[in-house]
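Exercise 7. Given the encoded structure of a 73-residue chain, write a plausible sequence.
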């Protein structure tokens, strides 16, 4: 286990990981048990939906630097 020797100082992590959709509605949830949660989204739909939001229109992606560049292979 990768976290086996990680010091938590007695802190308990309660879990409850989840995935929300474009409106913030719950799509998939992982309770307090260990596991993996996943979901699929229509990226074309999301791009169209986001285009209607003004704050995405006004982004300055030219200021993002390396974050906006191609991902390393």
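Solution.
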């Amino acid at each position: 286990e990768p976290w086996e020797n990680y010091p938590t100082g007695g802190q308990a992590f309660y879990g409850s990981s989840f995935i929300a959709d474009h409106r913030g509605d719950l799509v998939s949830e992982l309770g307090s048990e260990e596991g993996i949660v996943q979901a699929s989204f229509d990226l074309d739909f999301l791009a169209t939906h986001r285009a209607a939001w003004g704050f995405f229109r006004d982004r300055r992606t030219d200021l993002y630097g390396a974050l906006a560049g191609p991902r390393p292979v």
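Remark. Residues 17-68 form one domain. Students should compare their own answers with the one above.
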